[in-house]
Amino acid sequence: MSYYPRPIRFCNQCGHAVCHQLPGDGDARVRAVCPQCSHIQYQNPLNVVGTIPVADDGRILLCKRNIEPRFGTWTLPAGFMELDETLEQGAARETDEEAGADIELGRLFSVISVPPAAQVHLFFCARLRSLEFDPGFETQEARLFAPADIPWEELSFRTVSYTLRRFLENPQGTQVHCFSLE
Amino acid sequence: MSYYPRPIRFCNQCGHAVCHQLPGDGDARVRAVCPQCSHIQYQNPLNVVGTIPVADDGRILLCKRNIEPRFGTWTLPAGFMELDETLEQGAARETDEEAGADIELGRLFSVISVPPAAQVHLFFCARLRSLEFDPGFETQEARLFAPADIPWEELSFRTVSYTLRRFLENPQGTQVHCFSLE
Description:
Chains A, B: Its EC number is 3.6.-.-. 2 copies of one chain form a homodimer. Chain A is an alpha+beta fold.
């Protein structure tokens, strides 16, 4: 299963078949242009926003995925940023939806471009205000892991393992880690 | 003119009229669902990526816009992130396309959520390797401004003025500025 966007075949404004061509407005990229209503459908990378929820004793909250892709593996709570929200609001919403965790959102921690998936993953630090969780349907189990017990071989995504490794190297640091995964 | 996405009316996979409904997969948001082929079209915020190109003498490169919105105002070079590129590649590409500037890309400087536009703007620091520019069709003029001469009243977007103000307060700082504009 891939999240890379499917090629566009029809105009989503009028339903006519699109042409893949230069739009003629100076844009140097081929786009899905409607020959009937002239609407241009663009495809661009999407943001995935999440948190590193940390208990006061240093344990980290991970969620066991109940959905594909990577069913049954462990992830930080994260998901697609939605319209009408900020990065911070999206990260907090996903933490609530996937873990039912009560958090105090902290600083931006990592910003990871993932061109093969046409995504950018952004993780924020978060302090757990409570150790009671109420996972949603996307999560089989929400569990706290001491740093020594992180299931490195069973993590869902490389952006999660990179973010966790950078975080555990320096939990008190203030650097924002910006990098890319090919 | 608004960049907020237009409501979806037709399936871009099969051309059938869509229904706006809960998709039935646990998702709690109304989506554009195709009753014929079951394809779900999502709409999410987009990333706008750009740079703060600085000459060795401290002057900053701004571009006078030759396109709407905000025709004739001054902006930092920036534009929509494209598929198949990282944030850094997108920021460098936009700087080349809009200003024809030869830069050495630096660190991530600002990350600004703009929910009313369904966008996130991300600016990177950049050092100008040359003071010769070759603006593309989107730019009337590319010009260097000393900090005291920045045309604050004629800047294109609030994300540009916020980014420039934070940068000029502390050009050598290492903080990533993460905030939101309503």
